[in-house]
Fold this protein.
Amino acid sequence: MKFIDTAFIFSAVIVSVSAGPLRLSRRAVDPSLVPQFGVNPGVNPTGTGDCDGIPNAQGVPIKIPCSCPPDRNSFIQSLNANVAAGHAVNNPGIQVSFPADNSQASQLARLNAATVTLQNLRGPGVGCPSAATTFNAQAQAIRDGTAAPSAPAPPAAPAPPTAPAPPATGGVDPNLVPQFGVNPGVNPTGTGDCDGIPNAQGVPIKIPCSCPPDRNSFIQSLNANVAAGHAVNNPGIQVSFPSDNSKASQLARLNAATVTLQNLRGPGVGCPSAATTFNAQAQAIQNGTPAPSAPAPPAAPAPPAAPAPPATGGVDPNLVPQFGLASGLNPTGTGDCDGIPNAQGVPIKIPCACPPDRDAFIQSLNANVAAGHAVHNPTIAVSFPTGTSKADQLARLDAATVTLQNLNGPGQGCPAASTTFNAQRAAIQNGP
């Protein structure tokens, strides 16, 4: 009996010792089997944090966050955690596996695990999009039995900066700093985007509502860049600010202003050129024509009309329009999800957090109605009449839309495309 006990203990030790390494090898992925991203981060920053990803079917680069793809080591760390859990840690409903053999199914499973990890790095649907990698092309190549696309060559090191022209004593001359030519906060969409300069078709390009920045703080950043001879937040880009009136000097000043604008808060993170007329000014200088003038200051808004008094204790929740859309549909990995379809039937991208929680929304609506205007955008009047007339129903939809689009600040909230409010409005207008 004593022998049997000893044998049992010995065998248990063998099982325990041997089981540990087997479990570890199953959980820790082999880095050499982790697909390469095939894309470099930070290519052609727009100034809003967007950079170039893989090209679309027309050969035009798809915009991706400049921080994508992520650092490979931290990515593999996240992938390890997901594989160990058997699902995306940040999105538990999505299973992952990482088989180590070279079958087609296993290669595709590894690409799927990498894609899921990429798209859920920081939360459900919040990470980097597939367009920040060649994962889809690699998967297609595996299915077709052809070689997968190779990883890109590392980006070339930037040329050492040349000595810039010395700035004027005490900083640049503010009179020589180009005017933005655009006002911030024009026609907010509700997601923080506003109108910038028009594109070739005359349609305003969307820019952050906070762009262009405050001129004084902009000149302060420009001074720092000129003093350093390069963009402080993106040292590979040289700047100079000569003070004479030659064509070359005027263009150099516009270049310094553009670089400063696009790198205000980090490499490629600032405001886009579309938040200014800098490009048009540069073209005018090159052509020898007058530069475009700055816009007139925005007209003072009309005083808000007196709203209808809210119901005692707030609006009647039964009269608050339904959103008509669920949040979190088909996340892209960058925080965008599907909203209502556009005229072509393609879903409009909206923040995944939109539409908001209904109770929190009604609370904000109550505050706006009680104030008679959007609390976060006081120039916009709201009312919430309780009648059944067409005018009253439309007023309630207007109040709901204004509340939605200004939830977190002026023009910062959720877009109308995260609801069926516009369709509801059209139905009321077209109804009896």
